[in-house]
Amino acid sequence: MFYELTLATALFLLAASFFAGFVDSIAGGGGLIQLPALLIGLPKSGTAEVLGTNKLSAVFGTTTAAALYRKQIKPDPKILLGMGIPALLGSAGGAVLASKIPTSSMRPMVLVLLIIVAIYTWFKPDLGKYENLRHLPKQRIQIAALAGAIIGFYDGIFGPGTGSFLMLILVVSLGYAFITASAIAKVVNVATNVGAIMIFGFNGAVIWQVGIIMGVANISGAILGSRLAIKGGSTLVRKVFLIVTVALIVKVGIDTF
What is the rounded CA–CA span in Å between residue 69 and residue 125? Predict the structure, then answer.
């Protein structure tokens, strides 16, 4: 037994966390695997506890992936800070309201946005294949900061599709290649996770033992996924991005209807 978990349940959560770290490190969407697994594995825990524990586990993998990407891909630090800090603050604000605003009201809008993301990416086969930066450096930072704050807030209050939205902004609006966008998104995801964890942790809504143990499995998945993504480049990341986005559409669609 571990935190009132059977061995079978603990192994189930570890496996889910490993695969979540693997998928998330390539193109985001790890929550699609890990969050439902926590809901199944911790049926007696409240929604806030499940969300907080999910963020704690995920931050291990996203931090590992971000570090591995940084060894090979080196985006402008100004973009990382310009997008990451507003994302952290936005996520903390979203986490404060997570238990007060019904997320069911957000699902139809998120579903429509994810469908648009999938269709746009599908019909643009060369999208994000090569880097073609748009706007002046100052404008890029301003766009990144605004997007970081909004998407960070969304991640703190709800979450599904955060990685897809981050990468689409970076690729479509700013002109980054998918592989670079994935590297930036990992750093921003670390920020959103930390922002949410601070709020959930302050309110006692994190099961620390479970989150840390799952985090170790998440790291293992992130190492494997990051290495595969760096080797496969933007072409691989785009394919996984599409698969994850379609899976999110199905999941959010089922939850909505």
Answer: 24
